[in-house]
């Protein structure tokens, strides 16, 4: 009896053990093989001997990522599309328009009609010639309400009939209102040139641009995304690298470890706390671009107590700009003056407001708050530094008798529920040209008019600046329009944070852009 | 065999009801969250007109009950639907032939990766927890066993992201034995695959083992102190025989329960570990889908996780019954 029972138990344990092993092996065997299968096809083109640059982007890859320029939205989209497609013009260092697919442009006498001469000898990745038909198609597609591109708003000065191909390499744009800086308006996240007739489905997962790299493998939500050199690229000698891999590594310590271990070459936005170690590392270094993000607090100027300009000014004088920069961004950046337009850009306004607590207090008591004022600012960790920004400003505001209550909300719904809707909230903008930023934020009809700046006279002043052909006069008008917002607007903008990338020491030629447009052409690896 | 069937059949029936309830709760939980896939995708660009167009494209303009009903009827017929966010961009011109991404494609490829990782972690886990549990129970009171117990306690207390990041810093940067990125889809050979799996698997194993060892140790100690074990020892059986054949089978029950919880956690809750090692598993897909409120993907993953949990529990009950004769007859 006892022997029998022992046997059954032993047998049971044995069989159970084997069953478990069998199950695990079964799970391992057939599933392990296909993991290598999809990559096998691309290996011949992305061999290790070639110069492959592995680039870790700052955001996360998501299943909403797309390769279609008309829907360029996520952080992955911006980088993929910058590598594969090109626009008519591109930004230079001070965000002026310089030629890209267009070689030159010419306004008529009023600035209401623009003629763009296109570059010849450019081909799409599938070998077809790039001509004016592609430009007309791409622009009309953006304006098509059925396509519903988020970029349509950028072309509000155009309608479909106003875009015409004069000949194979000339395109004419007839604007609704004159715009002397129209070439700048051709640079935005969705304005990339796709081939004539390309459907949404063609463009979603596969890509066919004129850019320096061809898309080799892309699955939304999964990285790395692989690119190979466009051998027929129009600019001789570029791109320098043979292949590009775009990766998403969600955890900051893992990003840094991957760079230090040499598994990747470039990491965007390393944490400030790691910068010293990366700078002094034997294999790593950092690259700085002065342009970047501007965190800010928006006050809606039609909501009490912000409907009194003295209150807004008091909030501005209470802010220690250098202190904000040092504490929130570790000093990596430049000071900005209550409008998200840096003085280093074309038409920028110089000088920043003093930190003046006495003045702030005086303005507050003039406005009827001699014993101080309590206001609520809504914030979220939807972007890096947002909460730190509000917390540090809270301390400075307290010195002037302003009690800032922080209302911290979930990140998921911040843009949906808080932004544009609360009287006071934290927001941020990346560097844009002066004209574009003003149009985006301060025109009465602007979608993103977050401070409710609705001023007919200002709109007229802006339109006049846009239509003034003489450079100095135009500059004066643009500066006047900006100064008005600096003095009376509802934006508290202390600084612009530099864009920082960490790289392996052998990476040469790479400079982060500080804008949503990335120039991957000059990246190279020193041997 | 009959007791097994008696146990399994009603439980399977209940499982179907449980799954249905889970799918309902998940669906309405996603409905109740502010915003929808359209506003989540557009983010800062969400003007009313664009949201409207996108909602129509994703068919989010239909009432929720209709959408749930359609989803259930498709799901039971084996069609998991298409990812909502893959609807963009879609135009009238191409409405006939959209290249939407089937949920099954997205989920199964990630599930495969997670299963590979879970299998490796389990292979390490079973002998590790058995061995440590037995050692700490038998040699309790001795210094080395007690220090092992303390180590295990530390393991229980340290969350997996602490263990993971520690392992990452030590074994990829300080001693570069393993790659910091476990991009197993990129692995070119079996040894490379194993190297990529090593760190995440060890992290998971350490988190799971700690708990199981504690359970193993406690129940084994209780069993070793019981009368029938003392009887077996008095009969003159060797210590090895007493432990392996008399004590261990009875002590395994609680440890098996913990293992079941561990398996369920392994499949779904490895998000943090997947994040640390950039592992393309199902946890990352789930988090991503919840952020985008991509209901069909969330539902499919929830169904898989719930099924794993239900089946693992059923399996544990069967094993416990097999090990304990009293449950067999009752």
Account of the protein in words:
The complex is a heterodimer of chains A (about 525) and B (about 325). Chain A is about 30% helix and about 20% strand. Chain A has helices at about 1-40, 75-85, 130-145, 180-185, 200-205, 250-260, 275-280, 310-315, 320-330, 355-365, 385-400, 415-420, 435-440, 455-465, 470-490; strands at about 50-55, 90, 95-100, 100-105, 115-120, 165, 170-175, 215-220, 220-230, 245-250, 265-270, 285-290, 295-300, 335, 375-380, 400-410, 425-430, 490, 495, 500-505, 505-510, 525. The longest helix of chain A has about 40 residues, at about 1-40. With about 325 residues, chain B is mainly α. Chain B contains 14 helices and no strands. Mean pLDDT of chain B is about 85; it is low at about 90-100. Classes of the chains: A alpha+beta (about 525), B mainly alpha (about 325).
């Amino acid at each position: 009896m006892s022997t029998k029972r022992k046997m059954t138990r032993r047998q049971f344990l044995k069989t159970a053990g084997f069953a478990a092993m069998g199950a695990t092996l079964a799970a391992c065997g057939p599933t392990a093989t296909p993991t290598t299968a999809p990559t096998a096809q691309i290996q011949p083109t992305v061999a290790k001997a070639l110069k492959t640059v592995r680039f870790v982007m700052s955001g996360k890859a998501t299943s909403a990522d797309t390769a279609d320029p008309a829907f360029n939205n996520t952080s992955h989209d911006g980088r993929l599309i910058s590598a594969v497609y090109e626009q008519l013009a591109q930004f230079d260092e001070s965000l002026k328009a310089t030629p890209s697919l267009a070689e030159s442009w010419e306004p008529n006498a009023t600035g209401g009609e623009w003629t763009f001469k296109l570059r010849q000898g450019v081909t799409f990745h599938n070998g077809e010639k790039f001509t004016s038909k592609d430009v007309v198609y791409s622009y009309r597609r953006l304006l098509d309400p059925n396509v519903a591109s988020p970029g349509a708003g950028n072309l509000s000065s155009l309608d479909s009939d106003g875009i015409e191909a004069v000949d194979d390499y000339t395109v004419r744009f007839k604007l609704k209102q004159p715009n002397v800086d129209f070439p700048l308006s051709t640079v935005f996240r969705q304005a990339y040139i796709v081939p004539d007739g390309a459907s949404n489905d063609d463009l979603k997962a596969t890509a066919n641009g004129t850019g320096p790299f061809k898309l080799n493998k892309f699955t939304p939500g999964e990285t790395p995304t692989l690119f190979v050199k466009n051998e027929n690229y129009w600019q001789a000698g570029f791109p320098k690298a043979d292949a590009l891999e775009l990766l998403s590594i969600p955890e900051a310590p893992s990003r840094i470890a991957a760079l230090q271990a040499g598994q990747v070459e470039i990491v965007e936005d390393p944490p400030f706390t790691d910068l010293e170690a990366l700078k002094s590392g034997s294999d790593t270094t950092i690259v700085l671009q002065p342009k970047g993000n501007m965190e800010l607090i928006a006050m809606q100027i039609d909501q009490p107590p912000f409907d009194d300009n003295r209150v807004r000014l008091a909030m501005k004088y209470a802010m220690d700009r250098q202190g904000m920069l040092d504490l929130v961004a570790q000093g990596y950046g430049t000071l900005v003056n209550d409008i998200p337009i840096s003085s280093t850009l074309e038409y920028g306004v110089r000088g920043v407001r003093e930190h003046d607590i006495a003045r702030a207090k005086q303005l507050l008591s003039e406005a009827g708050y001699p014993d101080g004022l309590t206001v609520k600012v809504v914030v979220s960790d939807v972007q890096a530094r947002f909460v730190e920004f509000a917390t540090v400003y809270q301390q400075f505001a307290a010195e002037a008798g302003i009690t800032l209550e922080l209302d911290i909300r979930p990140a998921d719904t911040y843009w949906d529920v808080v932004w544009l809707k609360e009287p006071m909230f934290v927001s941020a903008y990346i560097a844009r040209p002066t004209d574009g930023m003003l149009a985006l934020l301060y025109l009465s009809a602007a979608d993103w008019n977050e401070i409710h700046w609705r001023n007919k006279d200002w709109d007229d002043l802006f339109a006049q600046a846009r239509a003034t052909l003489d450079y100095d006069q135009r500059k004066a008008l643009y500066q006047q329009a900006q100064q008005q917002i600096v003095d009376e607007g509802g934006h508290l903008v202390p600084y612009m944070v530099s864009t920082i990338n960490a790289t392996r020491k052998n990476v040469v030629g790479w400079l982060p852009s500080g804008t949503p447009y990335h120039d991957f052409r000059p990246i190279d690896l020193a041997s | 065999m009959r007791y097994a069937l008696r146990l399994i059949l009603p439980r399977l029936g209940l499982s179907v009801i449980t799954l249905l309830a889970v799918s309902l709760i998940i669906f309405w939980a996603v409905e109740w969250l502010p915003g929808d896939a359209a506003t989540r995708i557009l983010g800062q660009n969400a003007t009313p007109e664009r949201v409207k167009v996108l909602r129509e494209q994703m068919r989010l303009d239909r009432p929720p009950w209709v959408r749930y009903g359609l989803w259930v009827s498709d799901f039971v017929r084996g069609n998991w639907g298409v990812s909502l966010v893959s609807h963009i961009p879609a135009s009238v011109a191409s409405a006939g032939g959209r290249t939407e991404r089937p949920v099954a494609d997205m989920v199964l490829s990630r599930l495969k990766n997670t299963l590979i990782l879970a299998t490796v972690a389990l292979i390490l886990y079973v002998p590790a927890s058995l061995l440590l549990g037995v050692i700490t129970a038998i040699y309790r009171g001795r210094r080395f066993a007690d220090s092992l117990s303390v180590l295990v306690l530390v393991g229980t207390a340290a969350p997996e992201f602490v263990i993971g990041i520690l392992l990452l810093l030590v074994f990829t940067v300080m001693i570069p034995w393993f790659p910091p990125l476990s991009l197993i889809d990129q692995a070119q050979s079996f040894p490379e695959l194993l190297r990529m799996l090593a760190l995440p698997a060890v992290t998971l194993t350490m988190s799971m083992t700690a708990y199981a060892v504690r359970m193993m140790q406690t129940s084994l100690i209780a069993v070793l102190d019981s009368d029938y074990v003392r009887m077996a020892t008095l009969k003159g059986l060797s210590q090895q025989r007493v432990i392996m054949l008399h004590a261990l089978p009875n002590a395994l029950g609680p440890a098996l329960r913990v293992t079941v919880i561990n398996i369920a956690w392994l499949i779904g809750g490895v998000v943090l570990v997947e994040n640390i090692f950039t592992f393309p598993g199902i946890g990352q897909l789930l988090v991503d889908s919840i952020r985008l409120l991509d209901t069909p993907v969330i539902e499919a993953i929830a169904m898989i996780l719930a099924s794993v949990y239900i089946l693992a529990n059923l399996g544990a009950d069967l094993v416990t019954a097999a090990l304990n004769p009293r449950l067999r007859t009752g």
